[in-house]
Design a protein that fits this description.
Blueprint: H1 11-14, E1 17-22, E2 26-28, H2 34-47, E3 49-50, E4 55-58, E5 64-68, H3 70-78, E6 83-88, E7 96-100, E8 102-106, H4 110-118, E9 124-128, H5 130-138, E10 144-148, E11 153-157, H6 163-178, E12 182-186, H7 191-197, E13 203-206, H8 212-220, E14 230-234, E15 243-244, H9 255-271
Parallel strand pairs: 2-5, 4-6
Antiparallel strand pairs: 1-6, 3-15, 4-5, 7-14, 8-12, 8-13, 9-11, 10-11, 10-13
Helix pairs in contact: 2-3
Length: 287
């Protein structure tokens, strides 16, 4: 029997749900990262176009939770724009996966990093091997763990039980290094691998895996996670829009008129075959 040929989806099949909504209708579930937000504001101002829309999920009829793009939302809000162009997704869809970023720390010594953590009064820090630390975090027996330059692991814990209390301690922990050192995101807990990208790395902080319901509750209740922890993988993500930033300013047009203009703009791009769908993972070198 002849097998059916699986054709690549056309742009019409996978055009994402793009909308222009009020900036104030977006609710973050995590803090913005000042180290990323400040240069981002200047890049957006200089470019004059809206490149990669934040990805959001509906919370109710009027509000959206930002799954990815808290810094872009903060930047546009800081610049005074009343509207923002976003990609709306179904959080329960298989096209959205929730993973976790780790923090890789540089710009300070490992001794200073660990000393600052020890100053948190509620913290319990215990030295252990890496495998045991991984297992403890998987069982949610600890809040997080860190791996230092000697590859020794330390579990980080506190006597807290609620999402709000756990998140508050994690924010306090991240505050000890996010303004004193340099924070980057990574998906490995191997110092040697991290140093291929960040040669001056002194520590990696590994966070627990979250459930989508926890992300929604965090946004709804204002329980903001530290910056750069949640990692949402979106299949069919809209990028490189280069939509005129002026269209998001106060132009005298209604929101409905702005969205109609966006619809026509997307329709034209599709008709001109300027929308390309990549089914495979892609590396981008101009972020």
């Amino acid at each position: 029997m002849q097998r059916a040929v699986q054709e690549e989806p056309t742009a019409q099949d996978v055009v994402p749900d793009l909308r222009i909504v009020p900036v104030e209708s977006l609710i973050p579930h995590e803090e913005h990262d000042p180290q990323r937000a400040a240069p981002l504001i200047e890049r957006i101002r200089a470019a004059g176009t809206w490149l990669n829309p934040p990805v959001v999920a509906p919370l109710d009829a009027q509000r959206y939770v930002i799954l990815d793009g808290a810094n872009r939302h903060y930047a546009l809000k800081t610049l005074g724009y009343p509207h923002i162009l976003v990609q709306v997704v179904n959080y329960e869809s298989s096209a959205v996966q929730l993973e976790t970023w780790h923090h890789v720390i540089s710009g300070m010594s490992w001794f200073e990093f660990l000393r600052n953590l020890r100053e948190i009064k509620t913290f319990q820090i215990e030295s252990t091997d890496l495998l045991s630390a991984r297992a403890a975090l998987a069982r949610r027996e600890v809040l997080a763990y860190t791996v230092l330059s000697d590859n020794r692991a330390y579990t980080l814990n506190a006597d807290v039980n609620t999402l709000a209390a756990r998140t508050a301690v994690l924010r306090e922990m991240v505050d000890t290094y996010k303004s004193r050192g340099v924070l980057n995101r990574i998906n490995t807990d191997s110092i040697s691998m991290a140093r291929r990208l960040y040669p001056e790395a002194v520590a990696i902080v590994v966070f627990p895996r979250y459930h989508p319901a926890e992300i929604m509750v965090a946004a709804r209740d204002g329980i903001y996670l530290p910056p750069g922890i949640s990692r949402h993988i979106i299949y069919g993500r809209a990028m490189r829009l280069n939509y005129p930033l002026s269209a998001l300013a106060e132009t005298g047009e209604t929101l409905a008129e702005k969205n109609e203009a966006l619809r026509r703009w997307i329709q034209q791009r599709v008709a001109e075959r300027r929308v390309r769908y990549y089914a495979e993972p892609t590396y981008l070198f101009d972020e």
